[in-house]
Amino acid sequence: MAAELMRGQNHPLSRNRIEIRISADVPVVAGATLADENGQVRGADRVAHPGAPALPGIEVSRQAAAEHRLAVDLGTVSEAVHRVSVLIALPTTPGGPLRFGAVAAPRAAVVGLDGAEVAGYTLTGLDAESAVVALELYRRQGAWKIRAVGQGYAEGLTALFTDQGLPEAAELAGGIEEAVARGMARSVPAGTTQTDRSRRTAASVAEPDLPGTAPAADSAYDARTSPAASGTPGAAQGSTSPGGPVDYTHPRRHQASPPTAPAAPAPAEGPVPPVAGDAVGWSMDERLYNQVWGMFEDLARSTAAYRSAVDFAESRMEKELDQVLSDPRNRLGATGDAARDAARARQAQLAAQARAALDRDLAQLTAESEVVEPALPPAYARWDNPVWHGYRVPTEPPMAVRLGDLHLPESAPLRIPMLVRLPLERGLWIDSGLVPTADGAFPDAGELRHLALQTAVALAARLLAAHPAGEFGVQVIDPAGAGASALAPLMGAGVLTAPPATGAAGVVEALGRLTERVDLVQMAVRGGAADALPPGLDTSRQLLIVNDFPHGFDDRAVTQLRYLADEGPDVGVHLLLVADREDAVAYGPLLDPLWRSLMRLTPVPDDHLADPWVGHAWTYEPCLVPAGSHVLQQVLTQVAIARTKRM
Q1: Which residues contact 628 (CB under 8 A, 6 or more apart)?
Q2: What is the pLDDT of residue 272?
Q3: In this structure, how many other beta carbons lie within 10 angstroms of the beta carbon of residue 568?
Q4: Which of 90, 77, 120, 80 shows the shortest CA–CA distance to 28?
Q5: pTM, entire model
Q6: Which residue has the higher pLDDT, 601 or 95?
Q7: DSSP secondary structure string, 46-110?
């Protein structure tokens, strides 16, 4: 169980490789100092900050953001370092908060590589401070420990660095503020091959007084009623203050100067091309995962800026027209016509400027997608990616899996992979109900149900392929036996744990077996007696596919299914429901908790996924196997062979 620390409290640290997560309601700068046994920092080269994010054993974020993940490997820290202080500070951005007492208390957490939190500390009681030492990792009798510090400084980073004995405290603090202001966190140093991810948003080309609405705090594909966050990385939010303008610029991108400022000359060598894996992470898979999320955040923020700019242009035109028409003398004649034409021209100019900025962002994101997509590992890749043709059964599961693609109306050709963390924290629901296509037509109901089960099979095959042999199994309940053709790839390869359960008796037997497994594992985990499980009990993760729910389910079976949906994920039993909600209308509100607990996906493109970060409705497209491709059979055959060898 994670320890929740109070100020001054310490806690042992039994691992060297950790992640420190910072979360705040507003963008903050995160950094770290490396001090000697007396707590003194001997030089600026012992401070990790956005302008110099990497030191031996520690890597910090390159920008101000509301969420940070600092990678720490204490095993590679110099022996001369006895104390690692994790600091956060408020950037001096126009309209931003000047003290921590004006915002919600930030939180720092130490997390292991398995995602389990070791200790956390909420920095309460802050008032005039604009910089604070949140946590301290220190050596004690040959081992590392964590201490909750919470020492704040009203004079900011300069006072913090001075207190730690840094000779050039003021110069370093000024350099950090300048780096954050100029967006140096995402610029490319000379001689490196990292991607120049600097972009301009639509807000940056609109007028400086462009108003807008700040995005919500957390980035997630959706809330509990849409795709779950599922352990996904957080995103930085825009900074705002009452009555002030909103900065829509993504915190990891260089913020362009206002239109009135002289443009800096472009480098002679031109922009650096995108690079796959240009993100923080311990492995290439984690770097790609974080990069995909960065692309998602970029597209969300750029689109929000564009929509805000267009809305502002419309409201400004309406206001100007109202002012003109308020004078009866201007309602008719050449004067009124000229005023109307000027207002409409102004609106068109602002909308065109916003669209041009969005198009530039989309062009860079598209270029990045073109290098990232081919580099994705199988678990993240589409079925038409050549990486599947070189597939080998992995020796360890990935950190995430791809469920489909996401896009917005303003950027229809650009697709962002929808990745969710493993193990799945929520069940999945493939909605086989009638969904109108892009042209407003409804597909055939029978074909849609078949396509929904095909989508479920493709997801099940991806999950099987992403796990080591024998560590993930698939079971199927198909009461009417209507899904035999769609289930053929799983049945033909022999990767199902048991034949599909059919009829009422099959439903009862399958649900009873899984319910018993959940009960036994829960009791063993809660009692700390994992060795007491019955011999022969399969403890591998299981995916239960239920087709045509609620056909073949009585009240007791429905209750068991709800129990599996609620309690199963924590002990390795996951639900994949293929159903039309209208078929269960007779149950009334009884099944509403079940539907809400599942992540709804569709077998055809549909714009149902909510984004609470900036309020977008994302269009989801499933990952289906291309027509005529044999890649699914080839992958499942390898999974079956590996499972046989393991037995």
Answers
A1: none
A2: 64
A3: 25
A4: 90
A5: 0.61
A6: 601
A7: GEEBTTB-EETTEE--SS-EEEEEEEEEGGGS-TT--EEEEEEE----TTS-SSGGGSPPPEEEE
